[in-house]
Amino acid sequence: MAVIESVDFFYFSMPEVLPIGDGSQDALLVRVRAGQWTGWGECEAAPLPSIASWCCPLSHGACRPVRDSVLGARVDSPAAIRAIGNAVRANSMDLLQADHTLSGIDMALWDLLGKMRGEPAYRLLGYTRAFAKRPYASMLFGDTPEETLAKGRACGLTAAKFGWGPIGKGSPELDAEHFRAAREGLGRYKILLVDIGTAWGDDVERAALALPALEEVKATWLEEPFTSGALAAYKELAGRSTIALAGGEGAHNLDMARHFVDYAGVRFLQIDAGRIGGVSVACDAARYAQARGVRYVNHTFTSHLALAASLAPYAGIESDEICEYPVELQPLAVAITKERLTPGADGLLRLPEAPGYGLTIDVEALQPYCVETEIRVGGRLLYRTPELTQ
Amino acid sequence: MAVIESVDFFYFSMPEVLPIGDGSQDALLVRVRAGQWTGWGECEAAPLPSIASWCCPLSHGACRPVRDSVLGARVDSPAAIRAIGNAVRANSMDLLQADHTLSGIDMALWDLLGKMRGEPAYRLLGYTRAFAKRPYASMLFGDTPEETLAKGRACGLTAAKFGWGPIGKGSPELDAEHFRAAREGLGRYKILLVDIGTAWGDDVERAALALPALEEVKATWLEEPFTSGALAAYKELAGRSTIALAGGEGAHNLDMARHFVDYAGVRFLQIDAGRIGGVSVACDAARYAQARGVRYVNHTFTSHLALAASLAPYAGIESDEICEYPVELQPLAVAITKERLTPGADGLLRLPEAPGYGLTIDVEALQPYCVETEIRVGGRLLYRTPELTQ
Questions:
Q1: Cβ <8 Å between B375 and A371
Q2: DSSP designation for B217
Q3: Predicted confidence (pLDDT) per residue in A134-165, tens digit
């Protein structure tokens, strides 16, 4: 019987982090060990609060540190992994950050179980095969339409998403110039996706002003026109738009993903496995969406470890064709894994068939990015960066 | 022009914290200073992750530490306070814990502005008067029905809520015994409220089994039968129940509060101002509920500072009659304020008419509970417990 003996968090960062829409500037990796087995996962964003959620003192019965539900738990089956997630959600119910911390742990557990069983993670999730996905190059809009045009031209994939940067913050006319530049850069036949990065809050009328230009450039989806919780605004815009709406990356549990499907009228559900509670919950969300005719897409803006883990939850759903593929990664995010997931000659992305996620963490390459961290509470050392080894 | 010059977090704890449903065993206080003015607030639960969210390094443009949106900001009007909250939500969008950290800060800002203007916080929120509320004694169920009976008998208020403890975890018959014991203990005329503490997950059939006994004892509401996000389960149960449903304490932003009103069919919306983003957001939630015929109630299981701050958001709404009043506070939670909010001879609770929340923090009494905390990241000291003064 394999039980979790250690869970170690490693905080990495670029020497300089800029306030731009690039989530690959820092990283929080999680290493889980059980017997002779090791698995790796990654929590999305804000490493320090996620570490604090792991090791903080108990507040009360429904606000326990995440560690209390994880250390010593069995990890010998898919059901055992799911039981750990359920325990964290119950025991850390009032610890808001816990879902993000759990995400990296759950990710690591599927990697570990895959290695234990000699199977890729997607198969442990119940899929008999992993379908190739069409990766879209995930990029920031340029600062000017000219820059957006150049980015579109340089895109080597058959699909691209432009997001953040200046979009949605100026006039509808400026946005339209960027949309047209993106389409011109990509050419007529590539898939164009547009991401507003929640810039319109819940302002349906402002969003509606963008629809003609998005239709003109044949955008496949309009992503996050509104903040994550603005379900009614999504629903209203969906009723007025021929462009499919996409959203859901802010969901930090299965219920929130369901709400997007049930109440928001989105046609694409975007889930970040590094936020929603890991691969387990992401997989539940993919199946929930599939049963209701909504397409599932990974949200990934960090490493290829996060990418591989984010693809597993919907690997076996053939109709969910496209996947997010970050193309502007910082050197730190590239350094995380020795192997990369690269599209084949046909432009499609395939998951490794090796055990777990089939990736090796490059501890040597990561060393220079390691951020030494120490937390002391009431005279006790609660956390200190552990030694970085395989 | 008053700008925020300092925001200091203080972590307090009982010497021993038990894994029971008692949220008063630790506390995170926030002191905000602007010019000659000081305001105090309190974040609900998990002090360490909330401190980490304040001072963590930047991850990316939408994942900034809370401090980046607060320090140096103007705080000379209600609109200025709301602008700070909006900035935190935008700049820390991907930092999950940020809403809890913001809650204590926002709470402190209304206290500070109240002192600056010489007005109680509720008046700054737009209410011309504060109506007296009927406090209900908020207690845990006893370990046995006999103990629940004794707690009911000892209740000195005209309303009581029993929650957590063994309830919902055993048989429907055992639950019914507790409900009857609670009613017997309270006598025929007092208001009886029942809190399941999310024990039934999203299991509507299990919840339905409790309805006959709840009807028999004339419970005024059934609180949190399900987890916070199980809106569809709430809705279904609401359609089958003559007992009003209550919920919402898990909401950490206005959208989630709205979802409870719009999709869950609750007749009581319970908001914790220490979680939802503070008094500003709680007040928005109260008005949203009022406009839709849903009654607003504070959720408060900590100090009288949190209690006073939690009453301000709906102080002026006469039809929202009842309020949660914790009666089993740990000595730490009692020590926080020099003054207490106690019901008058008529059993009703009134907010102080003094500036802010009208309460004084008792720094001497708090000193023994102070938990020295230190966070270092990349060789830099990001946080150390500041000196505890007024």
A1: no
A2: T
A3: 999 999 899 999 999 999 999 999 999 999 88
List the single range of A178-182, A318-322, B139-143, B378-382 with lowest mean pLDDT: B139-143
- Do B186 and B281 lie in a common domain? yes
- Does residue A326 share a domain with residue A272? yes
pTM of the entire predicted model: 0.97
Residue B328 banded pLDDT, cuts 50, 70, 90: confident
Q: How many CB atoms lie within 10 A of CB A362?
A: 15
Question: How distant, in Å, are the alpha carbons of A53, B30, B54, B122, B155 from that of B8?
Answer: 20, 6, 10, 24, 37
Same domain, B265 and B368: no
Q: Which residues of B touch A272 (CB under 8 A)?
A: none
Using CB atoms, pick whichever of A20, A57, A259 lies closest to residue B61.
A20
Test mutation, A55, A255, A258, A384, chain B, max B CBs within 10 A: A255
| CATH for A298 | 3.20.20.120
Query: Which A residues 160-199 touch B at CB under 8 Å?
Result: 164, 197-198
Which 139-158 residues of chain A touch chain B by CB within 8 A? none
Nearest to A107 by CA among A361, A376, A375: A361
Residue among A220, A129, A216 at smallest CA distance from A175: A216
**Whose CA is closest to B255, among A198, A126, A43, A143?**
A198
From chain A, the residues in CB contact with B373 under 8 A are 375-378
Same domain, B163 and B205: yes
Q: What residue numbers bound the domain in which B88 lies?
A: 6-120+362-384
pLDDT at B165: 87
Query: pLDDT for B1-20, tens place per residue?
Result: 799 999 999 999 999 999 99
Specify the number of domains making up chain B: 2
Selected residue of A24, A26, A50, A60 to mutate for chain B interface (largest B Cβ count, 10 A): A60
Does residue B352 lie within any of the structural domains?
Answer: no
Among B23, B259, B373, select the one facing A376 at the smallest CB separation.
B373
pLDDT, tens digit, 9 for 90 and up, residues B63-88: 999 999 999 999 999 999 999 999 99
Let me know if residue A70 belongs to a domain.
yes
CA A58 vs. chain centroid, Å, equals 29
Query: What was the pLDDT predicted at A165?
Result: 87
Please tell me whether residues B141 and B261 are part of one structural domain: yes
pLDDT at residue number B21: 86
ipTM of the complex: 0.97
Nearest of A40, A41, A38, A42 to residue A26 by alpha carbon: A42
Residues 201-240 of B with CB under 8 A from A: 227-232
* A353 is a domain residue: no
Does B375 touch chain A if contact means CB atoms closer than 8 Å? yes
